[in-house]
Design goal:
Chain lengths: ~180, ~475
């Protein structure tokens, strides 16, 4: 379509300067109105997408077994349900932990996530080591890094003994 | 019929406009090198078609996704082929966009005035990578679940906003019901929409700037005179895209479709793994083949380099280099024979990526969890020290990482002939104290066990490989 310098809206306005400033105001107004409309639509969308960041991490104590099931010196895998799983989460709402009953009587609940990139470490009873299948990270029984890429010890969940049962505080996925 | 045709063109102008686009002039001697872009587009269209079909059955919920994929693969008519096409279509897209980028780099077609063509192409490359990753995740099996965790952990390394980014990816502070829906929405709506936009701009720019002439037709780019010379070239030696050039694209398109279909039919889609239960930790997460080389890079880099810097900086630097390329080298020589460094860089990148692919396929750093007890040929049943040592070598986990007589892992050195390198005291010190990249076994083995292990390792076992008992 050929561009026209004529201002259709201006009609009888013969004053060129007024016409140009009027057109400038109108175009700026249009851009501003468009931006406001876009922002109004974007506000709930962006807010909705970022909702997971705004929510505070919740936790709860989950019973993972009776103390008698974990003999002193043992490291056993336990599983617990997330604190407030969505109704359709299904089996994805489960989290695993390596529960160690130290000879001294204390319990330690390790996160299964390798501190390198989060893959699930396995406890190997023979060598008494946690080993990661992804990049070969290895941790000692106390969670400290033994070899491979990991620089940090395995993360721990708070754990307590209440009335003969072991309970784990369901923390978030350890990041960093 | 002609009247209907003319009426449509009069009211829409589309037929004239499309005809003008189809007949746009193309420089001479483009040949088979120039079919890779359209082939990538064909692969994308395969993805759109098969993806929409898959989405009519797939259920993006963490409870049902796994079952719905299983139904698509084993229950639905042609579901097996459809999933296979989507998988091999994705592979084709990765390969073709890579080859297309390589061709454009080698012929220096990114130079003036096609810098923005290149930039939109780099953007498309990034988007295709995002599609490949999110697509692998939608399988929502055990591998997918741990891939989501690995993605979140990698994002978590970004300074300041890392944790927020990780939680954004997971749609929460851990895996859950919202995680999969988020990946589904990105894979199916958001990223494809941006890809369509970028393809539109990319193709528009190909028309706006014209297809670059091969370097042998124009060896050097001088921005001041280029456009004028290009117009003159088209006027004198240009050929109509339709049908003088497009027939090669049509043949290539058929090749892509047939290859994808054949692979889908004969090889089929990747099998769905164990269920997506994060408490089943007997897992060996591996990315799809296109990311396997990067998976290997993360395993072998020195850890004090990799973790604080590399994971975040490397992808950033790679894309920064790609974006900067047409601005750093906007003009000048295009012939590869006069750009030895460009040839060398391309060959170097291909070699390094190829090497890490090979390494990732072998994954020598991973402990071999299912390794069997050593079978030692030619050891007398009465030689209890040897037999005890061999048993301990397995039971104490040495064999996870070390090979003896051709059996065992490859994280550490082969110990078949370690007795020739180290004396007994050195072996004891290495077992108890660890070192280099080996855990210390002090407190895990008794003095008698150490003695048996040393006695076993001091003996040369290299001749026992494959010999009969």
């Amino acid at each position: 379509m050929p561009e026209s310098d004529a201002c259709a809206e201006c009609g009888t306005d013969t004053d060129g300067a007024t016409s140009i400033s009027r057109r400038r105001v109108l175009s700026r107004l249009t851009v501003a109105l468009g931006a406001v409309s876009a922002a109004l639509v974007a506000w709930p969308i962006v807010g909705f997408l970022f909702d997971p960041l705004a929510r505070r991490a919740q936790g709860t104590w989950r019973t993972v077994g009776r103390t008698a099931e974990f003999p002193p010196g043992s490291t056993r895998q336990v599983a617990f349900l997330d604190p407030t799983p969505l109704p359709w989460a299904g089996q994805t709402a489960a989290t695993a932990s390596w529960l160690r009953h130290e000879a001294g009587g204390d319990f330690i609940a390790f996160s299964v996530n390798c501190t390198h990139l989060g893959c699930p470490v396995r406890w190997e009873q023979g060598p008494q080591l946690f080993m990661c299948p992804c990049h070969g990270g290895v941790f000692y029984a106390d969670g400290s890094p033994a070899s491979g890429p990991p620089l940090r010890a395995l993360a721990r969940y708070p754990v307590r003994v209440v009335g003969g049962t072991v309970q784990i505080w369901t923390g978030p996925l350890p990041i960093e | 019929m002609r009247r209907v045709w003319r009426w449509i063109d009069d009211r829409t102008g589309l037929i004239t406009r499309i005809g003008r686009i189809a007949h746009h002039p193309v420089p001479p001697r483009t040949g088979w090198r120039y079919v890779l872009g359209s082939a990538t587009l064909i692969a994308f269209l395969i993805q759109v078609g098969t993806g929409i079909a898959l989405a009519t059955v797939y259920v993006p919920s963490t409870t049902n996704a796994y079952n719905s994929i299983d139904f698509i693969t084993h229950g639905a008519a042609l579901g097996h082929v459809l999933r296979g096409m989507h998988y091999f279509g994705a592979s084709a897209m990765m390969i073709l966009i890579g080859l297309h980028l390589l061709r454009v780099f080698l012929t220096a077609s990114y130079k003036f005035p096609r810098e923005v063509n290149w930039l939109t192409g780099v953007g498309l490359l990034g988007l295709v990578v995002v599609m490949a990753f999110t697509g692998q995740l939608l399988r929502w099996d055990q591998n997918a679940v741990w891939s989501a965790v690995v993605a979140a952990e990698q994002a978590g390394r970004v300074p300041w906003i890392g944790t927020a980014l990780a939680h954004f990816i997971l749609a929460g502070d851990r895996l859950g019901g919202a995680t999969l829906s988020r990946f589904f929405a990105f894979h199916v709506f958001f990223v494809p929409a941006i890809i369509f936009l970028f393809i539109g701009i990319h193709v528009y720019l190909v028309l706006h700037n014209g297809i670059s002439e091969p370097p042998d037709v124009r060896p050097r780019i001088e921005p001041a005179t280029y456009r004028k010379e290009y117009r003159a070239l088209l006027a004198s030696r240009g050929r109509s895209f339709w049908p003088d050039v497009v027939w090669r694209d049509a043949i290539m398109a058929l090749v892509v479709v047939v290859v994808v279909l054949a692979l889908a039919q004969w090889i089929g889609p990747p099998e769905v793994g164990k269920p997506p239960n994060p408490s089943i930790i007997n897992a060996s997460p591996r990315p799809d083949w296109y990311f396997l080389w990067y998976f290997a890079v993360l395993a072998v880099l020195p850890k004090h380099v990799e973790q604080p810097y590399f994971i975040v900086l490397a992808p950033l630097i790679a894309f920064t280099v790609l974006i900067a390329l047409p601005f750093v080298f906007p003009s000048g020589e295009r012939r590869l024979t006069r750009r030895p460094w460009a040839a060398l860089v391309a060959a170097g990148v291909l070699f390094v990526v190829g090497y890490f692919w090979w390494l990732g396929e072998r994954a020598p750093w991973s402990p071999v969890f299912d390794v069997q007890p050593l079978v030692l040929h030619g050891v007398a049943p009465t030689d209890t020290l040897q037999l005890t040592g061999a048993r301990l070598f397995h039971d104490k986990g040495c064999e996870f990482c070390h090979t003896v007589a051709g059996q065992g892992g490859h994280h550490g050195p082969d110990l078949s002939r370690v007795g020739a390198r180290l004396d007994s005291a050195q072996i004891v010190s290495r077992i108890l104290g660890g070192g280099a990249d080996m855990p210390a076994f002090v407190g895990k083995v008794s003095p008698a066990e150490v003695q048996a292990l040393v006695g076993f390792l001091r003996r040369d076992h290299s001749h026992r490989i494959g010999s009969s008992p």
